Amino acid sequence: MGMEIDYQPDDSAVSLFEEDCINHMKDMRLEAEAVVNDVLFAVAKMFVSSNLESGLDVAYINVETREGNRYCLELNEAGLRVVGYAFDQVDESLSTQYHETVYSLLDTLSPDYRKAFGNALLQRLERLQQNGQ
To answer: Any stretches that span the bilayer, and where are they (predicted)?
Structure first.
């Protein structure tokens, strides 16, 4: 037992470092999956693109709003932005603004998203109130 404790700091430092590298590699893709799961209920379709290469620093998300408009979103460290007006489309000439969250992005794109999201929020609040009483 005593020996193990002596070695622990080095071991954990190394494995933490390795883990960090591995985690970072899957980072944006995992992040993208989380983003999709978060707002799926308020859009028509949404999924991480399997045709566009998601990697370390960037992932692409296809979304179809309830209005039937399609967008390709780019997710990276800076946030999310629209990069195309069709699934799996990246238009290099677009310089759309970055949004920190998927909520604010969809908020600008889709009034129906806003409605669905607002309703879900209200329902949740009502449920909380009922449970509180």
So the answer is: none
Buried b (16+ CB within 10 A) or exposed e, 93-127: eeebeebeebbebbeebbebbeebbeeeeeeeeee
Two tokens, residue 104: 């604010």
Q: CA dist 11 to 3, 17, 21, Å?
A: 12, 10, 16
Residues 50 and 38: beta-carbon distance below 8 Å: no
Residues 107-114: what's their mean pLDDT?
A: 96
Residue 130 has pLDDT above 60, yes or no: yes
From the list 82, 37, 42, 74, the residue with the least C-alpha distance to 58 is: 74
Query: 3-state class of 87 per DSSP?
Result: coil
pTM reported for the whole predicted model: 0.75
Total domains in the chain come to: 1
Residue the block writes with tokens 């699934």: 87
